[in-house]
UniProtKB/TrEMBL annotation:
Organism: Linnemannia elongata AG-77
Domain DUF6589: 288-677
Name used for this protein in its record: DUF6589 domain-containing protein
InterPro entries linked to this entry: DUF6589 (IPR046496)
Lineage per the UniProt record: Eukaryota, Fungi, Fungi incertae sedis, Mucoromycota, Mortierellomycotina
Domain of life assignment: Eukaryota
Pfam family, one: DUF6589
């Protein structure tokens, strides 16, 4: 030890100086030798070791009264160092969002890695993060996958506190508060609540949220403008109806029901083999078109073969569901035919329009508003329009076809609407098919085996023949399907020595009995009307299930083979409008269109917003989801919401709102407060229907020979074939014309022709 330091120590000893005073003098000393020794003390982490020792000693009850000065000093050091780090320009730049420059890309870049948004916020402030971890009793090795503590995720709490502190230091470092404001707004949070949370530093103010929404809308419109010039695209639109209720009724202020239209632009996946600018060939040459006969519209042998294959799969799946959970049996897989490539569908919600698309004039106004204002297509496109698919329900297609008839003589390419190709979509077709099956087999509660009698027996609510609720009806038909397949499975097992794992053999027998003419004799059952009705119902429900499963799989090959069968059923069920549209669709696919354009038409019926296999959905279902979100936000805002606000600030940002909502719910561990989208157990309903079938001798050996009232159900496929042969196909072909390579249809004139 230096002699000078020894002399200092001796002097301090003689003066009875305390250790704190000595250390203070030591660390303040300007002497080079003293500074060298104190520097080594810091270099060897001496300060940290001393603090840990003092902290351990001060935890002793004997010294608790003496630790106030120590704790205050330690806090001052932590606050000073933390503030210096929080005021770092790198942190400010990373979490800064200017209200008028917010874009969808910026929001998504902040929300990447799903629920790591707040985690990254917390980890960015290392000193504050370490301090908060200690206060939250969160160990360093804990990961995001650790179960949530007391209903909260510690990393999210740290991130939220960090974001609030940074925001209080600088109002411009507002990324968390901006996204929180959007989240509150898109979930229907009242303005006063948002303002209160803004005062707490959890959100930006309401006026700033409005600035962000306008910026997002401007960015969305610019993105649409770029997309339509670089990619192939199509549009889907549907009506959106909103009820405006006034609690204080007046002559000039009464309840109203506003009709509008919402639309979405969807990009086709880029085909590397073809440039997006290259025009598609729509129509086959005359010499390559097949012979135009009635057989063109009927299912071919390959269509029936495909249906039998998929039917085996659905029946085997129902059998497997009826077996114990520990059973090793598996369903027969379905081999894909023509699946679409799994790509995340790129789509752009467009601005809503207060235009009624129920009328012909309304559809024309919608088309013009979308192309001229929504997409802002350049003049060169309007001068030479590209062939564009317009997706919608049957009524939309009908109105657009009529418009094309009226505009055929127009010499202007855009005004003639020759570029518009209306295309029926699958979700509305599914709903219509479901309703056709339900009404055909509903019967009366007095008719044994009818859906009405089964409905009364199991006491299912929300089922009505006159006013169908699709979700309830779809679920009911699937439950009946499983119960009847289970009953047939038991009947076959009783009469044979087959093991439960011999599902392919059992399935083959059941499939053969329902495909074609119903054959109860294959089961050794009486060929009674009630058994024939039950097998017809199984066959029809199998068609409905297959359409849904083919959509989810994204297999347009399976869909194209199913369309002729659905066409028969639409005719058989007396569904005039859809029967006509199915004829037009089949005519195009099998006779008129090139394979490339037919594939393009079928591809436009499906989208995959998540880019995940098995997550395909009908295009019009996507638009229905958008409409539901728009209605939810509209109704939550009450009298403050207008159509102009819905158009300018909400409609184009629906996908951004969905991303923000998913992020927050995952981040903070929000659990669903509803079970409406979760699959509930149907075991009780299936068991109850089994009891009904057993009691009435349906698809099993009857317990008694007592005659009960039974009415034969119409065979939708055979009846539909008779109607098509009886004149509907001939009338369709007689009225169908092709002029200048554009297929036309006198739709409204034909709507009441097919009986």
């Amino acid at each position: 030890m230096p002699q000078k330091l020894l002399r200092v120590l001796q002097a301090l000893k003689d003066e009875n100086m305390t250790l704190p005073v000595f250390l203070e003098e030591l660390f303040k000393s300007d002497d080079q030798q003293v500074a060298q020794w104190t520097g080594q003390f810091h270099e060897k982490l001496g300060a940290g070791r001393v603090l840990r020792i003092w902290g351990d000693r001060l935890n002793n009850k004997k010294w608790q009264r003496e630790d106030e000065d120590f704790v205050n000093s330690a806090v001052d050091v932590v606050v000073s160092r933390t503030l210096d780090h929080l005021n770092n320009n790198d942190i400010k730049q990373h979490w800064r969002l200017k209200y008028k420059l917010v874009t969808e890309e910026k929001v998504k870049s902040l929300l990447n890695n799903d629920f790591r948004f707040l985690y990254r916020y917390a980890e960015g402030a290392k000193y504050l993060n370490r301090f908060l971890k200690g206060l939250l009793e969160e160990s360093d090795h804990e990961l995001l996958s650790v179960p949530i503590k007391n209903g909260r995720r510690p990393s999210s709490v740290r991130g939220c506190i960090t974001a609030m502190l940074i925001f209080m230091l600088s109002r411009e470092v507002n990324a968390f508060q901006t996204i929180m404001g959007l989240f509150l707004h898109c979930t229907g949070c009242p303005k006063r609540v948002l303002q209160a949370l803004s005062g707490l530093g959890l959100s930006v103010s309401y006026s700033q949220v409005q600035k962000v929404l306008k910026s997002l809308t401007i960015d969305a419109r610019e993105q649409v403008k770029k997309a339509v010039t670089k990619h192939d695209w199509y549009i889907v639109y549907d009506n959106i109806n909103i009820a405006n209720k006034h609690h204080h009724q007046r002559i000039d202020k009464r309840d109203t029901f506003d009709n509008g239209t919402a639309a979405t632009l969807i990009l086709f996946p880029f085909d590397k083999a073809r440039s997006p600018a290259a025009p598609l060939c729509l129509f086959r040459p005359e010499d390559e078109r097949p012979e135009l006969t009635a057989e063109l519209f009927f299912p071919k042998d390959v269509d029936w073969e495909v249906f039998q294959r998929v039917c085996r799969s659905h029946i085997s799946a129902a059998i497997v569901r009826s077996l114990p959970k520990d059973s090793a049996a598996v369903a027969i897989p379905i081999l894909p035919i023509k699946k679409l490539d799994i790509n995340k569908t790129v789509l752009f919600p467009l601005q809503t329009m207060k235009l009624d698309e129920y009328t012909i004039a309304g559809n024309l106004a919608v088309l013009e508003r979308i192309t001229r204002d929504g997409l802002r297509l350049p003049e060169e496109w309007l001068a030479d329009p590209k062939n564009t698919i317009v997706a919608g329900d049957q009524m939309t297609v009908s109105r657009l076809l009529t418009l094309k008839i009226h505009r055929i003589v127009d010499t202007d390419p855009y005004q003639s609407l020759s570029w518009v190709h209306p295309t029926l979509q699958l979700f509305h077709l599914r709903m219509n098919l479901c309703g056709t099956i339900f009404r055909t087999h509903y019967g009366s509660p007095l008719h044994t085996g009818s859906l009405a009698a089964i409905n009364i027996f199991i006491d299912t609510k929300r089922l009505s023949k006159d006013k169908l609720e699709f979700k309830a009806t779809d679920e009911f038909l699937r439950i009946v399907f499983d119960a009847m397949v289970k009953m047939l499975y038991k009947s076959l097992r009783k009469g044979s020595a087959l093991d439960e794992l011999d599902i392919p053999k059992l399935t083959e027998t059941i499939t053969n009995s329902i495909c074609g003419l119903p054959s109860p004799s294959l089961f050794g059952l009486p060929c009674t009307t009630v058994n024939a009705n039950a097998l017809l119902l199984l066959r029809d429900i199998a068609v409905h299930i297959e359409l849904d499963e083919a959509i989810k799989a994204g297999d347009i090959g399976r869909i194209s083979h199913l369309l002729p069968i659905i066409t028969l059923m639409m005719h058989g069920g007396g569904n005039t409008n859809y029967a006509l549209e199915m004829l037009r669709l089949l005519y195009g696919i099998r006779h008129l269109w090139t394979d490339e354009w037919a594939t393009r038409i079928l591809s436009s019926m499906l989208v995959n917003p998540k880019g995940i296999d098995g997550e395909w959905m009908a295009t019009d279902m996507l638009q229905e989801n958008h409409n539901y979100l728009l209605k939810s936000i509209f109704s939550a805002k009450g009298s403050n919401m207008t159509w102009e606000y819905l158009r300018d600030s909400i409609s184009t940002n629906i996908r951004t709102f969905q991303a923000i909502s998913r992020m927050f719910e995952r981040e903070v561990g929000v659990r669903s407060n509803s079970t409406k989208h979760k699959k509930s157990s149907t075991a009780k309903e299936i068991f109850t229907i089994e009891q009904y079938l057993q009691k009435n001798g349906i698809l099993c050996e009857p317990e008694s020979s007592k005659c009960k009232e039974v009415v034969a159900v119409a065979d939708l496929q055979r009846l539909g074939g008779d109607k098509m042969v009886g004149g509907s196909i001939a009338r369709f072909l007689d009225r169908h014309r092709i002029d200048n390579a554009v297929d036309l249809e006198e739709t409204e004139a034909l709507e009441n022709v097919i009986n």
